[in-house]
Amino acid sequence: MCLAVPGKIVSISGDDPVLRTGKVSFGGIVKEVNLSCVPEAKVGDYVMVHVGFAISIVDESEAQRAFEYLRQMDELIELQEDAR
After folding, report:
1. CATH number, domain at 16?
2. In this predicted model, what pLDDT tens digit does every residue of 42-62 receive, in sequence order?
């Protein structure tokens, strides 16, 4: 199943809106994510990430709620396996 996963932007690289990327923390697992779809995103923002692209900015409570739902459904296993 393809789902968007919430994460917190911890750093941003690049000034070009198309090439802008960020390191995003998913409950402690940090991945490089393309930020071109959310040009207004900044460090500390929570974003929903789908196939390596941040597709929207969400508030912290919504991100935590979505992360908890994914954890309950065991949908975070793939993310954890990628970190190994």
Report:
1. 2.30.30.140
2. 999 999 999 999 999 999 999
pTM for this predicted structure? 0.81
Provide the number of structural domains found in the chain: 1
Domain that includes residue 17, residue range: 5-83
In three-state form (DSSP H/G/I as H, E/B as E, the rest C), the secondary structure along the chain is CCCCEEEEEEEEECCCCCCCEEEEEECCEEEEEECCCCCCCCCCCEEEEECCEEEEEECHHHHHHHHHHHHHCCCCHHHHHHHC
Cα distance between residue 15 and residue 4, in whole Å: 25
